Amino acid sequence: GDSVTQMEGPVTLSEEAFLTINCTYTATGYPSLFWYVQYPGEGLQLLLKATKADDKGSNKGFEATYRKETTSFHLEKGSVQVSDSAVYFCALSDYGGATNKLIFGTGTLLAVQP
Amino acid sequence: DTAVSQTPKYLVTQMGNDKSIKCEQNLGHDTMYWYKQDSKKFLKIMFSYNNKELIINETVPNRFSPKSPDKAHLNLHINSLELGDSAVYFCASSQDDRFLAGADTQYFGPGTRLTVL
């Protein structure tokens, strides 16, 4: 079945450092890909998404490119802030023809230190 | 103006009890979901409903029974609670435009932390 693999955390960075969180996927069809973020004690928020190969999703300085050839959707940010500390989830949509379900990676905890 | 709301936020109960979690969305979406997040933060879908009709049931024990009185509400009832049911339960909704074929964004509620003692 479809699956998502993302790098284990925690990832600890200093403020203004460059961030990469790796995400690869396995899918039989052509899924859409998502990054969700979960701040402490809160629900999940969509960070960005890409719906087809070579699409780049971007939001709040974060970006990720849908790479079909490497089945990857790595999350990057050029300069992280303390407020970016959260758990980041990579996900793909498994569309069954009637409704879609999200298949999530295990989440990566990012801790940014001042 | 909460888009997806859940009640209660915290639920602490004894093994063997029956409990319900309620979810409401005011986004006008057609599809609603329940996800379970375990202690390691892993998220897995449990159910989805489209216009009050059950679409996805991911081999969840039949102690869990979702109920959708209308397309804006999806409640989760759990019978005979077990220790392993302790988790955070998230409700979500999406428009599910068939032309987008899975590209719809799912909007999540704040979660309900269930602790079974």
Largest interface: A-B, 28 and 31 residues
Mean pLDDT over all positions of chain A? 92
Order of helices and strands of chain B: EEEEEEEEEEE
End-to-end Cα distance of chain B:
34 Å
The secondary structure category of chain B is: mainly beta
Shape of chain B: globular
Report the portion of residues of chain A in β strands. over 45%
Task: Summarize model confidence as the mean pLDDT of chain B.
Answer: 90
H-E order of chain A: EEEEEEEEEEEE
What does this structure look like?
The complex is a heterodimer of chains A (114) and B (117). Chain A is mainly beta. Chain A is built from no helices and 12 strands. In chain A, the strands form 3 sheets. In chain A, strands 2, 5, 6, 10, 11 and 12 form a 6-stranded mixed beta sheet that branches. In chain A, a hairpin with a 2-residue loop joins strand 7 and strand 8. Chain A is globular. The N and C termini of chain A lie far apart (41 Å). By secondary structure, chain B is an all-beta fold. Chain B is globular and about 40 Å long. In chain B, the strands form 2 sheets. In chain B, strands 2, 4, 5, 6, 9, 10 and 11 form a 7-stranded mixed beta sheet that branches. In chain B, strands 1-3-8-7 form a 4-stranded antiparallel beta sheet, with no helix packed on it. The interface between A and B is medium-sized, with 28 and 31 residues.
Question: Quick gist of this model?
Answer:
The complex is a heterodimer of chains A (114) and B (117). Chain A contains no helices and 12 strands. With 114 residues, chain A is mainly β.
Keywords:
heterodimer, A: 114 residues, mainly beta, 6-stranded mixed sheet, 4-stranded antiparallel sheet, globular, B: 117 residues, 7-stranded mixed sheet
